[in-house]
Write a structure and sequence with these properties.
There is one protein chain. By secondary structure, this protein is an all-alpha fold. It has a domain of 61 residues. Helix content is 69%, strand content 0%. It contains five helices and no strands.
Length: 125
């Protein structure tokens, strides 16, 4: 039984070891925070091109449109990722049924995208 779990244990051990070594090296040779603020650190704390402060206030909130756009991106991104396994299946399949399923999926994906676009969910407000 240990033979079947041995590769998993080795992989977990190597992952934890490499992660621990990198964390230790970062702690030892990484940049340290200065004791008092310098002109460079004050300049880094100024707002960048977007005008958003580097350290936001306690009551700083993103708009609803940001979250809506992020959710739509994740939704369509995951749907497009599902196209890869279908492509792998189509390579080995000689069936028109698989092609029909793929075309149906892409058409439904495009209809959903057009619906979201026409509703104005992709417009930044």
């Amino acid at each position: 039984m240990l033979k079947t779990y041995f590769p998993i244990l080795v992989f977990a051990f190597l992952g934890l070891t490499v992660g621990g070594v990198f964390a230790m090296l970062n702690h030892l040779i990484g940049p340290k925070k200065p004791a008092r603020p310098t002109s460079a650190s004050r300049r880094q704390a100024e707002p960048y091109e977007s005008g958003i402060p580097v350290e936001p206030m306690k009551n700083f909130r993103f708009g609803v449109s940001f979250y809506l756009l992020a959710m739509l991106f994740i939704l369509f991104d995951i749907e497009v990722v599902f196209l890869y396994p279908v492509g792998v299946i189509m390579r080995g399949a000689s069936s028109v049924f698989v092609l029909g399923e793929l075309v149906t999926f892409v058409v439904l994906l495009m209809l959903a995208f057009v619906y979201v676009w026409r509703k104005g969910a992709l417009d930044w407000k």
